[in-house]
Amino acid sequence: MDSFDFGFGGPRLPFSGITASHAAVARAYGDLLNSVALPVVVLNNYWQIVFANRDFLRLFPVGKEDDILGQRIGEVLGCSNSSLSVSGCGTSPGCRVCDLGGALYAALFDDLDSGTRAVRTGAGSALERAELACRFFSMGEDMMRVCTFVNVGLRDAAEAQHAGEYAPSQEM
Fold first, then answer.
1. Which H or E run includes 143?
2. Which of 76, 107, 123, 145 could form a disulfide with 114 if both were Cys (CB 3.0 to 4.6 A apart)?
3. What are the extents of the domains in the chain?
4. How far is residue 9 from each of residues 29, 148, 151, measured CA to CA in Å?
5. pTM
6. In Å, how far are 44, 117, 159 from 110, measured between CA atoms?
7. What angle do CA 41, 46, 51 make, to 5 degrees?
8. 147-169 pLDDT tens trace
9. Full 3-state SS string of 85-117
10. CA distance between the termini of the chain
11. CB 89 within 8 A of CB 99
């Protein structure tokens, strides 16, 4: 038994429930979520992945969507804390200071809106530094979290380029 539960660890929905949730999300929102030009993942009440859009699967080296259904986001993104306890992501002492866990957990207390928080997504990822924003929505009796990732490195480079192009001239 794990000695710590960050609030979203511990028990998991059985895979039959994951596939049912995936089918419901894909049927209701799949086309919309796949049209978003950002990596998007939908998590269930147990913080397990029930849907990942095409950009998420393309930018993170996680395989096919079927390979990650039911896993928690830290497990998929290779968080080192997720392997420190039997129950995985969200249950090790390191989860208290995890940027990703903090961003997901904060949404519970921020009027169901996590704002945007910086996270490190792992060295193997195309998005080593990202900002994560989560929003909640109800699907029947379930509360789902839809999370988007923004590439901080690309944004910083674009802002630096923009600042260089529009820097005020020092000549008079």
1. strand 142-151
2. 107
3. 15-165
4. 26, 21, 26
5. 0.76
6. 18, 12, 28
7. 25
8. 888 776 666 666 777 676 655 55
9. CCCCCCCCHHHHHCHHHHHHHHCCCCCCEEEEE
10. 71
11. no
The DSSP letter of residue 8 is: S
Pick the CATH number of 15-165 from 3.30.450.20, 3.30.450.40, 3.40.640.10, 2.60.40.10: 3.30.450.20
Q: Which amino acid is at 97?
A: V
10 Å CB burial of residue 102 (0-12, 13-18, 19+) is middle
List pLDDT tens digits, range 74-125: 888 777 777 777 777 777 777 777 777 666 766 565 554 445 555 655 555 5
Q: Containing H/E element for 123?
A: none
